[in-house]
Amino acid sequence: MTELLPLAILMTSLGIAPVILALPDGWSRLRTALNLTAAGMKLALVAWLSWAVAGGAEFGLSLEIAPGLALALKADALSVLFLALSSVLWLLTTIYAVGYLEGGTDRSRFFGFFSLCVASTVGIAMAANLFTFVVFFELLTLATWPLVVHRGSAEAHRAGRIYLVYTLGGGLALTLGAVWLYALAGEVPFLPRGVLGDLPQTDPLAVTAIFVLLIAGVGVKAALVPLHGWLPVSMVAPAPVSALLHAVAVVKSGAFGIMRIVYDVYGVETVEALGLALPLAALAGVTILYGSIRALRQDDLKTRLAYSTVSQVSYITLGVALVSPVAAVGGLAHLIHQGIMKITLFLAAGNFAEARGVKTVSAMDGMGRLMPGATLAFTVGAFGMIGVPPLAGFVSKWYLGAGGLDAGQPAVIALLAGSSLLNAAYFLPILHRAWFRDPPEGAVPKRRIGWMLALPPAVTAALVVAAGLLANAPFSPLGWTRFIVSLEYL
Amino acid sequence: MTSDLVYHVAGAGLLAIALWRLATCRDTLRRITALNVLAIGIAMVLLASGHDPATGVTNPVPQAFVLTGIVVLVAVTAALLALAERLEGSSDE
Amino acid sequence: MNETSLLVSLPLIAALVAAAWPRAATITGVIATLGNAGLAVVLAIRIGQGGAEAEALGGWAAPLGIGFAADGLAALMLVMTALVGLGVSVQVAGAPLPDAGRTGQRTAFWPLWLATLGAMNALFLSADLFNLYVTFEILGLAAVGLTALSGTRTALRAAFDYLSAGLAGSLLLLLGVALAYATAGRVDLAVVPELAGSHEGRVALGLIFAGLAVKAALFPLHFWMPAAHSSAAPEASALLSALVVKAAIYVALRLSIEGGAAVELLRLVLAVAGAGAMLWGAWHALRADRLKLLVAHSTVAQVGLIALAIGLTTGARDGTIWRAAALLMLSHALAKAAMFLAVGRITEELGHDRISGLNREELRPGAAEFAFAIAAISLIGLPPTAGFVGKWLLLDGLIDRGAWPWVALVLLGTVLSAAYLARVVSRCLRGGPHVAPGARRPAWRAGDAAALGLATAALALGLASALPLTLLDATLT
């Protein structure tokens, strides 16, 4: 029975998607009930799974598609890390989206694809081999597209087109790399410390080319410069979709893909031996600085947050690419930390836009007095991003910096310092306007913020605080990350 | 020997004329005629290839092919003519 | 009488019954299509377990009699035809009772479809070249009837061009077959490698491939196809595009496998023609302004991809590439039939098939559009569809051969297909300023179910690709 646990977790969202798609738009009660039940069930199942995996249990099941080609799921420690993130945030984002889209059009389509999106993410988290990973990775692209163009405006369609061009292009590179690797190596399961055997010695050129293709493929979703162009454009999507893109599913899948490829396909030592670790770390460093610098100049709040994501996600890549267990802990923990911090910021920003029509930084004046709860959540998220102790972001940055020293790359410290300064430079003015300036005369609320919109950012902000304060607890993101890294660097 | 050559050359000539007409002409009736000429050309080449000049014996199998081909040709020509007639008759759209 | 001969005789007899008895046409057609599907599945299971079979009709052996052979590839094609036929039959049988003008059309559909089915089954089971020629002729005549079914002037013109192109192709085929006989003294399929050894034999094979290229609408002999497939009635287009074109492709694949290394040059020509078709079709699909025209051009492109795959087989029976080609044929059949049925439903509801107007309609035929989208995913070759597994295997085989330029071409074709299909799918995601919030949804029709069913089959086949691939292992040696 428990062998089927990964399948059950997948089906809570995959099985419900077609049902929701087929529901008439007006049946919002049933749809919400289905959505929340599924999200709750998944959370419970993931909790069960985490407990079992921590106890040393192994899960795996597979379906052969063609000779040497199997769809296979498994749940290891790394999967659980990503699963926990996506299932907690799925529940919160669903609650938020129900409130956000109340009275809107095409809600069945929206929630159907929303579930499909999370199903793909869960599939990515539990993929046991490269083929399965590619399947779910592409499925994620397809499921997200209708969400990006949800508003149906010309601008939304333009964003959707750009999104498709980038992600399908990346998917093509990823598929080509994966097929090539299968042609060379036979099957490519995900196993700690890599599965390539002596292939890197016999055919280093092909193995390097494949690495570049694979990283380029997942790098599009991870928004590595210069493949990040779709992310700021996708800001036209509704706020819950932004949360999905930036925190729960898309960007995270890209970063997770980099982890899988570096750790479980190639193995860290092989990547270093091929001379690929340093270029990857350098690319991550460039992305961190570039995203922060671009964020400085954006007046549109969501675009500023989007460039901030470009920058922050590369912390994860940096942690993976610096060949050091300490840095790896920082990078992996940041997968979770960035997720909860960024979702807090986006949900709060969505509330500003919904309640007051505030979409730009320059319109943030006095928001702390008008909407204290949302502004407080936003502030926690922003301080976390800057790396103020004892919030979650500080923990990641601490480990990354220590890892840089450990790996003999003191430049990382300078990079982190510079990036943190830039983070402060683009977040603090927002906070200053919100808390210390007077609200404009005669500002009236556009609509009331119900509990469905108010609760999720409050919860995630609390998580940001907890992840920092309780970093040493056994089931904290950091604690779990140490467990994973102990498997990768033995 | 020479009579075989005549068949081959004449058949090839008919083939060439028919293919040229098919490629250049859009009139329905001319196309139907061209297709028939093409078929006859092929039949001539086939019949000639069934004849072994060394022994003087004629192989019946190519003849059977030609017969089948003629039956098919008649059927397709009938269908083409019917379509052509309906095309002439209809003037909608 | 076993399944093999029943598969040929049942549809043909049913066609006669349906033609003679127009009142009972629908019921005859549905029963025969169902029966055929059952027979095809039984045969496929038996071949999957017991291997290939051969049969001489009426007890006459090869030189005089007609031989039938059923192997894994043939069984796969039979099942493909049966499945697509079932979907289309559901659509036709379940359509609401039409006005007087359409009634005749509907009763005429069944004999034509059943004759097409019988001819296709016979073609897949044929074990010699001459038999293939005869079945091609029956198929061509029945398919022309399907093309002309809607009775409009454009459809009649397209049918005329189709039939004359088809006849020219058949005549080339006949000439090739006769030359093959003159050279080798026999016409069974195993003769192909022998033919490739002599000069006359190579001419014969060249003529046969040229005839096939006309029938499969390979570049530059594709001129007749887009018009024929876009002006026919939707259910006829579905059959023509999904199945009838596959007949010629199937024979090309069969000859490529039988020919082995001996027909290397012909295969190269086939691959080049396929690449040409892929690019030409994609280019025109990108510029098409009508939905049906776009889908018809996409058939040119997709068939080009399959021809490219066939052209690049190594000739070895254990190779990956020809399996990929067979899988692509199967997935294209399901997806393209779904797509044409969906287009038929969309056109029926909206009253037009202009692509640019799709996102400006208040009416939303959601089910049909969803079916179109799934079919598009399969045609592009995105997971988890059968098209994806097919393309994966194809790329795997090409990389194994080190055929990098061809890999690049396949990827280019994929990008183009995504581009032209996204033109349609993106407009199905309407909303926003163009559309009022209270958009209407039309009632469900059998056509929606048929389109969704076929599209879902293309999707599910991706997860069950092991079944067709195992069946292909039982292909004649």
From TrEMBL, chain A:
Q: Where is the NADH:quinone oxidoreductase/Mrp antiporter transmembrane domain?
A: 127-419
The protein's UniProt keywords, in alphabetical order, are: Cell membrane, Membrane, Oxidoreductase, Transmembrane, Transmembrane helix
Domain annotation NADH-Ubiquinone oxidoreductase (complex I) chain 5 N-terminal: ranges = 70-111
List cellular component terms (GO): plasma membrane
Indicate where this protein resides in the cell: Cell membrane; Membrane
What membrane topology does the UniProt entry give? Multi-pass membrane protein
In terms of InterPro entries, this protein maps to: ComplexI-like_HydComp (IPR052175), ND/Mrp_TM (IPR001750), Proton_antipo_N (IPR001516)
Q: Mostly located where?
A: membrane
List where the protein spans the membrane: 46-66, 78-98, 110-142, 163-185, 205-231, 243-262, 274-293, 305-329, 335-353, 374-395, 407-428, 449-471
Select a single GO molecular function from the record's annotations and give it: oxidoreductase activity
Q: Outline what the protein does.
A: NDH-1 shuttles electrons from NADH, via FMN and iron-sulfur (Fe-S) centers, to quinones in the respiratory chain. The immediate electron acceptor for the enzyme in this species is believed to be ubiquinone. Couples the redox reaction to proton translocation (for every two electrons transferred, four hydrogen ions are translocated across the cytoplasmic membrane), and thus conserves the redox energy in a proton gradient.
Name the record gives this protein: NADH dehydrogenase subunit M
What's the source species for this entry?
Answer: Roseivivax halodurans JCM 10272
UniProtKB/TrEMBL annotation, chain B:
Taken from the UniProt entry, a GO cellular component term is: membrane
User: Which residues lie in coiled coils?
Assistant: none
Question: InterPro entries this protein is in?
Answer: NUOK/Mnh_C1-like (IPR039428)
Residue spans crossing the bilayer: 6-23, 32-51, 63-84
Q: How does it sit in the membrane?
A: Multi-pass membrane protein
**Any signal peptide, and if so, which residues?**
none
Q: What are the subcellular locations of this protein?
A: Membrane
Which Pfam families does the UniProt record give?
A: Oxidored_q2
Q: Which UniProt keywords apply?
A: Membrane, Transmembrane, Transmembrane helix, Ubiquinone
Q: Write down what this protein is called.
A: NADH-ubiquinone oxidoreductase subunit 4L
Q: Which organism is it from?
A: Roseivivax halodurans JCM 10272
Automatic annotation (TrEMBL), chain C:
Q: Which UniProt keywords apply?
A: Cell membrane, Membrane, Transmembrane, Transmembrane helix
Q: Which residues form the NADH:quinone oxidoreductase/Mrp antiporter transmembrane domain?
A: 126-417
The transmembrane segments are: 73-95, 107-124, 130-150, 162-183, 203-224, 236-253, 265-286, 293-315, 321-343, 363-383, 403-422, 449-471
Write down the Pfam families for this protein, in alphabetical order: Proton_antipo_M
InterPro entries according to UniProt: CPA3_Na-H_Antiporter_D, NADH_UbQ_OxRdtase, ND/Mrp_TM
Q: Where in the cell is it found?
A: Cell membrane; Membrane
Q: What membrane topology is given?
A: Multi-pass membrane protein
Q: What domain of life is recorded for the organism? A: Bacteria
Any single Gene Ontology cellular-component annotation: plasma membrane
What GO terms in the biological process aspect are recorded for it? ATP synthesis coupled electron transport
Gene Ontology molecular functions: NADH dehydrogenase (ubiquinone) activity
Q: What is its main location?
A: membrane
Membrane found in the keyword field? yes
Task: State the protein's purpose.
Answer: NDH-1 shuttles electrons from NADH, via FMN and iron-sulfur (Fe-S) centers, to quinones in the respiratory chain. The immediate electron acceptor for the enzyme in this species is believed to be ubiquinone. Couples the redox reaction to proton translocation (for every two electrons transferred, four hydrogen ions are translocated across the cytoplasmic membrane), and thus conserves the redox energy in a proton gradient.
Query: What family name appears in the similarity comment?
Result: Belongs to the CPA3 antiporters (TC 2.A.63) subunit D family.
Its protein name is Oxidoreductase
Q: Which organism is it from?
A: Roseivivax halodurans JCM 10272
